[in-house]
């Protein structure tokens, strides 16, 4: 089973940028679809972005479309989330997940979750 470790979170002003990374252990990273989710205080965890195992197909939630971009580097066993034009409502703990396949608004058959990284956007 793949193990995931997120990094890159922090405190940023509204309008700023951050890039999150999720490093995976194991030789099977390239067989997994990957996704980013977030959970704000008092709210349910929500899908942010997903990417197919090959990296050719991506999905982004409407709330982040045009501002966030998911990508992956299978040679480095890493998936990224580039976040631009950040807003205070983007404040949350961000989690990466590995699953069977990606689809609109979801990662299906999630096998592993990372521990999360905090993103705080100040106004």
In short:
By secondary structure, the protein is mostly beta strands. 0% of the residues lie in helices and 53% in strands.
Structural classification: mainly beta
Dominant shape: globular
Strand content: over 45%
Q: How helical, in percent, are the residues?
A: under 10%
Distance between the termini: 40 Å
Unreliable runs: none
Task: Annotate the secondary structure layout.
Elements lengths: L3 E4 L2 E4 L4 E7 L8 E7 L6 E6 L6 E3 L7 E6 L4 E6 L8 E8 L1 E3 L2 E3 L3 E2 L3 E6 L1
Parallel strand pairs: 2-13
Antiparallel strand pairs: 1-3, 3-8, 4-5, 4-9, 5-6, 7-8, 9-12, 9-13, 10-11
Task: Explain what the structure shows.
The protein is mainly β and 123 residues long. Helix content is 0%, strand content 53%. The protein has strands spanning 4-7, 10-13, 18-24, 33-39, 46-51, 58-60, 68-73, 78-83, 92-99, 101-103, 106-108, 112-113, 117-122. The model has no long low-confidence stretch (mean pLDDT 97).
